[in-house]
Specification:
The chain is mainly α. The protein has helices spanning 4-24, 32-39, 43-49, 53-76, 83-105, 112-120, 125-151, 160-181, 185-190. The chain has nine helices and no strands.
Length: 202
Amino acid sequence: MPSMESNTDTQQRILDSARELIYARSYADVGVAAICEHAGVKKGSFYHFFPSKRDLTLSMLDAVYADLKETLVMKAFAEDIPPLARLDRFGQLAAEFQQQMHQSTGVVLGCPFGNLSNELATQDETIRIRIEQIFTNLQVVIRKVLREAVDEGEIKNLNIEATAQAMLAYFEGVMLLAKSQNNTKILSQLMPAMSQIRINTI
């Protein structure tokens, strides 16, 4: 009987393979067979852990967000610098990650959540809702920073909710533009403007 460690290892290999393949290609282009081959597992093992490709994708989204939170969000929004500077750091770290990926793959891969949203939001409601939740979580972090900026007098007369949404929309738009042109320079040129976005209260 397989040990719990081997089961965990198999499940993780499937998740890691899905992350790598779908991020580099697309959801539609990557089938269960390709994921299994990349992970070095049989289809029976795949379906033991994930009843469907959708279930795997939901688990993958959760895993990607957990990693993003640990490696990017917590680092960018650490309270060692003023609030607006943290927003600048968030854009900078995201740009640096895309530049590193570009060096290793030759392409700008963009935001994994934005990519899947563009591909699946009108096709799979369950996946769309999960991505919406992730974007909502990111907006919560941005709203917290904006609230601190208002409290500390860095910004005045600000609609925090709308500005947080606008900043996230701008971030995703810059990611999409850089991906569409396969040009990381767009990220370094445009990301600094994210912290300057203001939607005032009426």
